[in-house]
Request: fold
Amino acid sequence: MRPGANQVIQSAKSLGRMAMVAVAGLTLGVACYAQGNAAPPQAPNPANAEVHLLHVQGKVWMLVGAGGNITVQVGDDGVLVVDAGLAGTTDKVYAAIRSLSDKPIRYIINTHLHADHVGGNEALAKLGSTIAGGNVVGDIGASAGNQATVIAAQEVLDRMSQPDGNRPPAPQGAWPTETYTTPERKMYFNGEGLLLTHVPHAHTDGDTIVFFRRSDVISTGDIFVTNGYPIVDLAHGGNIQGVIDGLNRIMEMAIPADEQEGGTQVIPGHGRQCDVADVVWYQEMVTVIRDRVQDMVNKGMTLEQVKAARPTLDYDPRYGKTTGFWTTDMFVEAVYKSLSSKKGDAGQ
Amino acid sequence: MGRFQRIKIAGSFIALIVLSLVAGKPARAQLDPSGEWSPRFDEDWEERIPGPEIGDYLGIPINEAARLRGDSWDATLVELPENQCRAHGSDYGWRGPSQLSIWKEMDRTSQKLIAFHTHLSAYGAEQTIWMDGRPHPPDYAPHTWQGFSTGKWDGDTLVITTTHLKENWVRRNGLPRSDLATASAHLLRHGNVLTVVAITYDPVYLSEPFMRTSDFVFNPQQVMAPWPCESVDEVDRPAGQVPAHLPGTNTFLNEFPANYGIPPEAARGGAETMYPEYRIKMKTMKTLPRPAKKVINQ
Reply:
């Protein structure tokens, strides 16, 4: 879809502020990892966050400004969201969703465990409801339907429900209520099939890509972002090869229209709405850097030597950072460790 | 009919013609670029038609990062299915071997100009240039090959401003142009000749704005050919493989300066190489020995 054809429901008043909140969210996501493992992560002032909705295509919208991007699907069955944003932004997220639909929020799908994606789980889930009956209600009681169902890969629940170093587990109300352990999980909601694909050991070990088949939209989580190098969270099972596998998987699923653009739309974990052509550029960048670092590892170069060789030099003006929570040096180090670990399984 | 009456009728007729011409003339002497245009390649033929040589970065204000992208680029990249139908960016498209068609979109009621549309034969690329004053989309909106363009008149020159571009190239030998770039194009019509001055501003890969001109000739008989493009697997290779030269391993880079007797240092490009005085400096630089058999781009 051309930019001019997109319906911007709430126009941008301050992209700088939006970016600040997004960066802050990502910062906290990496620094605090699982929501609740430390004090509930907060943006400097989430109350100042400005959220914006952008119609992507079909039944899918992109909500930006609440931390990580939130994907919103609306239809007769209710509302489904992919990720819940930062804690403290839920009121604005919910208000934006209400501008699209007055149906209940039925599902929250978490792409991974970072606070800028799951921070709003508890508050947003409580504003929704699950259609529950039969054995479920019989076993659990009427409260089974009192909140939206929160779906994630099993690894997300494992990590959120356990202490993380010296940080306590996330509050139980923020945990996924339904997990999957298979490579894929299929759902049908609002008249379209949803394919949830688990990408092991990528951004983290619990990454999920969500494909809305009829709307033809892919929600990627932080395997794909447009505002920096991919964050490889080694401490939580991430690995550069998994990120590349995930990007390749997105490219396999997506079908572009004329001129290799349009067609399947892609919502990144952070940044602007994309299509597969944008993913291709990003995949090329990550793969080229992986190949360079691999060559250096094969030659026996140390991490410091690799950093000094600047294997990311040609992409740094676009994606690199020298300050902040995820610098170019940290990215290079994560790539190096991913590739140089004994079994090639750093982060696993 | 008397002589005076004939003069009066003739005068009224002429006044009517003049009035109709004035009424139909756009405000501020704007020259409508609509129509069918055939490209002329006299300028920069070798770059535009046969294609640039590997390692020829002359005359482009690239920075160190762009240079490494170019050095790492492997032409095999173009044969990957995901790249075969990738269109030129709108800032580059004017340069291609493309016929150009421009037409107007008018508001039926007010007859106010809403937009110009362009169609280039290469890749069937179409650009919309909004003339109705609408704002550019927010940063989180999608980027496209053609970007989001608005236009305004500067005298009789149509000035186009483009944002929301996807990453593309400034030269088809791997020199990149980032998705953070913006572009302007200035359309100047001189009778049956249309000159397009295209300027790319890229904070990522260019140290200065990069300006190019392209010429077209009015050709109302022109028939635009379709550009069907379907990706195929040309080479059986592992999924996800990205052909590229590792830093320092591209052995093709010296072919261009050697074949043309150009100092290798000059071939590396950069803002300095854009300016005429650089030719004086080049005379002081060393060149490589020419190969026994000149390699000519076919």
About this structure: The radius of gyration of chain A is 19 Å.
